[in-house]
Amino acid sequence: MKFRRSGRLKRTNIGPDIGPMADIVFLLLIFFMLSSSFVIQPGIELNLPKTETSQPQLKDDMILIIDSEQKMHLDNEPVSVKQLGRAIKERLPHYKNKLLIIKADQDVKHGFVVKVMDIAKQNNVKKLAIATERKKKGKR
Question: What is the mean pLDDT of residues 125-140?
């Protein structure tokens, strides 16, 4: 005796459904992409002067930060005026552009910034740049 299979019975796949798992992974990806843009980097707080034509900072440059109390940090390491020339001379070979970006607080006296620029030029810095922030629209 032969039994026929009826056409109504269908074979069902037994196993996990990966559709909801893919949705969860996609949502996690979106969450981390959005939340990572709100990370604030710790550092020295400055109030940079505002300009209309500010440009983004390049990566391969030496950075000197001067805060409102005239404390200086060369590549995030504290340095005094007396040590500045030697510190620049030691670090300069590691930078291909030989550029020093000065991020001076707007309350720092002009004469102090000029003195720092002179020290940098005496120690073979080829280019100097002063960092600024872009003005917010509507404020003058």
Answer: 78
